[in-house]
Amino acid sequence: MTTFTKTADDETPVISIDAHKRISRINPNIYSGFTEHMGRCIYGGIYDPGNPLSDENGFRKDVIEALKELNIPVVRYPGGNFCATYHWTDGIGPKEERPARPELAWLGTETNQFGTNEFLKWCEILGTEPYFCLNFGTGTLDEALAWVEYCNGTSDTYYANLRRKYGREKPYNVKYWALGNETWGPWQVEQMTKEAYAHKAYQWAKALKLLDPSLILILCGQDGTSSWDYYTLKSCLLPLNSPLSTSAVPLIDMHSIHLYTSSSSHLKNVTAPLAAERAIEITSSLIDLAMIENRVPPTQLRPTICFDEWNVWDPIRAEGSKGAEESYTLSDALAVAVFLNVFIRKSKDLGMACIAQSVNVISPLMTSKDGITKQTTWWPLLLFSKYMRGWTIGAHVSCSTYEGPTSPEWVRFAKETPWLDVSASIGDDGYANAAIVNIRDDNDIDAKLEGPSGLVSVFTISAGSVSATNMKGKQEVSIKESTWDATGKYLFPRHSLTLLRWRV
């Protein structure tokens, strides 16, 4: 948690960090990823058979090694919007017998050469857990139950035996399952009203947990600030003794929200992710309100928030139906850093966050036939995933603020927009870490720091311009390492992310 005091422009900024004030555990799942059958994410991204850079499974080895650097705990699949017409049985069994289908989310053809078994094997090689999104469009409850049985079943039953027939004796034990994706959106096949969705989601959840009570089920929310979020939470967060269910475990474990931000204006771009912070705060309150109104007892586990799609994305600059291949700038990298600061500050409420997406599609990692490119947004992800773990700790920032327009506009009245955006953590290794984004594009900021001591490791991400990019055949944005003796003030460069790390 970071608190803030607004000061005048001519006052010296102060950042105070209390490494002994542990606020809440940071769930490692906030560093999760997302792969969808969209553009070149799967085909030509993680799966590229015949390429000399691929292994015997057709998996790109350079992609796997790169993603291992990020230590990704969970990867969501197969969508996204794609899942609303996806039938998982098309993607199992002999590849020569798998049908090609029209794909309606991104208006292409799905060959089904990459499916459940391939994805789960890829997850095992990567060392990550799978997270499946169920088809709430053209899919059926029977189909969903069959998918769970195929992945997790241990008995002598049809779909568990089908898994064995196709070469996998032991169950995959897929834990995370989403009850649809963005079913509120007009772009969805089988778009639903909130009333229709809430009824269907609860009934599906009941059946799924009868089959496998260990599942973690994720409710489909909107952006955390909508009546859809309130209604679905109120309808589905019910006590165990509810007349609608006799389940011995809660049916809903997490509530999903999505947010993409972008602006061609740097200051709008880097303050936009603060909308995610307010969305998390509102969603957390809606969870509390639903539990209060439904008289859910305090002994029943409170759901967490699953922010399972987030990123900087301009859908005009990177059109979804054309593969959504963004060329990210330093400004975008700093916006990603602010997103990540938000997730650290709000760790109490977050059970998972998935950057959309992991390869090629609005991604920090791009492939070509000959190799990979780590975009500007790769570097803040790497720093945070490597160091910002353990516990969120108390921090206070005193500085002046950006007073201009924001995108979305409501951020201006809903959140403070300080020139220094800060989060802090302490790891189980005893090292404290502070991530500071100087969002200014015109001035360095000389600030007093209270808390760091001894020799401080410094990691800086910056460049000569906010428009710097790594997609020009050269790497303009990366991490520069240095040290600081923790005496005097520290000069935070304009348009930069600085991570300070010291032994407590």
UniProtKB/TrEMBL annotation:
Annotated signal sequence range: none
UniProt keyword annotation of Nucleotidyltransferase present: no
Chemical reaction(s) catalysed: Hydrolysis of terminal non-reducing alpha-L-arabinofuranoside residues in alpha-L-arabinosides
The protein's annotated pathway: Glycan metabolism; L-arabinan degradation
Keywords, comma-separated and alphabetical: Carbohydrate metabolism, Glycosidase, Hydrolase
Pfam families documented for this protein: Alpha-L-AF_C, ASD1_dom
Domain Alpha-L-arabinofuranosidase C-terminal, residue spans: 308-496
Leading EC class: hydrolase
Origin superkingdom: Eukaryota
InterPro entries: Alpha-L-AF_C (IPR010720), ASD1_cat (IPR055235), GH (IPR017853), Glyco_hydro_b (IPR013780)
Assigned EC number: 3.2.1.55
Family the UniProt entry places it in: Belongs to the glycosyl hydrolase 51 family.
PANTHER family: ALPHA-L-ARABINOFURANOSIDASE C, ALPHA-L-ARABINOFURANOSIDASE C-RELATED
Known function: Alpha-L-arabinofuranosidase involved in the degradation of arabinoxylan, a major component of plant hemicellulose. Acts only on small linear 1,5-alpha-linked L-arabinofuranosyl oligosaccharides.
Name of this chain's protein: non-reducing end alpha-L-arabinofuranosidase
